[in-house]
Amino acid sequence: MKKLTLVFLALSLAFVFCSCNIHINNIELTEYKETIKVGEKFRIKYSVNFEDESVLFVSSNTKVATVDLTGVVQGVGVGDTTITVKLSSNKDISTSFTLNVTSRYNKEDFANIPLDEDLWHIKYLEEGSDVETIYMLLRKKISDVARGKETRTSFQISNVAINDFNILDYSIMKAVGMLWLNCPYDLYWYEEQSGFTYDYNIKGNTIDLTVRMPVCSDYRKSQYEVDENRKEVALIALINANAIASAAPESDYDRIMYFKNKICDLVTYDTASNNAQIAGKTKCGNNPWQMISVFDDDTSTNVVCAGYSKAFKYLCDKVGIECKVVNGEMNGYAHVWNVVTLEGKNYIVDVTNCDGNSSGRPDKLMLVGAKGSIEKGYTDLNVGIKYRYYIDNDPATSMLLVFSEEGLTISDTSYKKH
User: Fold this and answer.
1) What distance separates the 2 farthest-apart alpha carbons in the chain?
2) Do 318 and 245 touch, CB atoms closer than 8 A?
3) Which one of 135, 174, 223, 312 is separated from 182 by 20 to 30 angstroms, measured CA to CA?
4) pTM for the full predicted model
5) pLDDT tens across 283-326, in order?
6) Rounded to an integer, what distance in angstroms lies between the CA atom of residue 43 and that of residue 33?
7) DSSP string over 332-388
8) Comparing C-alpha atoms, which of 396, 327, 326 is closest to residue 169?
9) What span, in angstroms and rounded, lies between the C-alpha atoms of 214 and 80?
C-alpha cells in the first residue's frame, strides 16, 4: 500500500506541473478585427494566465497597419498584414491573426480630387522661359503621381522646345529646385536627400528629357515607383488640409494665425526624427519631413521644421496668400521656414518655433520683421533668432537663384493687424 500511495502522489504532482506549463503557454485573443479601413483603429484585447504578464505587439507590414505598445492597431495602407501578440518573457509564445485593410474611398473619389492647376504658375517663373516650360511639364507629372493617377517617378517628356541651350542644365536644375520648394503636397513621395538625376537628347531645337526622382521608403514599391496601396494615406491628408483651408476666416492675417494654430494643435515637434537625421540614421523625405504627417488623422505622426513649413504653405496657397518655403540656417543650424508676402512686404513666419515650449510661442515669429540682409542673414525683431538663406550657386538649392532678391528681402518692421 505504501508503494501505491507514493506512486499516486508522484503522478499527481507531475499532473499539476504539466497543467501549469500548458496553461502558461497560452495567449488567448478575446477581441480583435480581421478587416478595417485605412485610418480606422481598434484595440486588441487578450488574456494570459497571470495578470502581470506583459506582451509585445508586432505588425508584419507597417505600411498596411501599425500597432502601438498598448495594442492599438491602425490601418495605414491597403493590403494584408499579420498582427502577432508575444509574451515579453518568452517571445516564442505567441498568437496571431491576419488583418485586411481596405480603402476608405472609391476610385471615383480620388479621380475627382482637383489638380489645383490654377496654383501651378508662380510669381518667380519667367513667362516663356525654358525654366517655366520644364517646370510646368514636370508639375503635371508629379501631380498625377501624388493623386494616384500614375505610379512611375522616372518622368519622360518628349519634344520640349528650348530657347537657350547654353544654360540648359541650369534651367533643368532650377525647374526641379522650384518644384521642391513650391509643391508642398505633390512631392510627399520624393526622397529629397537622395536628390534627382536627369538626362536629355537634343533634336534640333527640342529635347527629349528624362528626370528621375526616387521614392522614399514609406511609399516605395521600387526606386522610381510609388506603391499605389500607400497613396490613400496622402490623399486623406489632402482632403483634411482642404477642409481646414475652406474653414479659414476672412482676413489674411486671421487666416495665417488660424493655420498656425491648426497645425500646432495637430502635431508636436518630432525631436527623435530630428536627432536621427543629425546622426545620419534616417533620410530626409520620409514622413516627419512632409505635410502628410500633419493632416493624416494619426496623432502618433509628428513633424520637423520642413513638415510644419510645407503644411503652412499648402494652406496659404489654397486661400491665395503668397507664401514661400525657404531653406537655410537658424542660429547656425539647418532649418526650413516660411516667408509670407502681405501688402507688398515680406515677413518671416516660423511655425515650428511657435509650437509647444519654443522661444517664439505663441506667435512671436508670425509675420515678424527683421534686421540684416540676404547675404549676411536676418535677425528677427521679436526673439533675436538669426535666419540665413542658402544662397550658393546651385540652381536647385539656392534660395536667391530661385526667388530673387525681391522675394527674399525681409521687411524691417513687423506686420500690424489693421
Assistant:
1) 111
2) yes
3) 223
4) 0.81
5) 544 578 899 999 988 888 899 999 999 999 999 999 999 999 99
6) 9
7) TEEEEEEEEEETTEEEEE-SGGGSTT-TTTTTTTEEE-EEEETTTEEEESSS--EEE
8) 396
9) 25
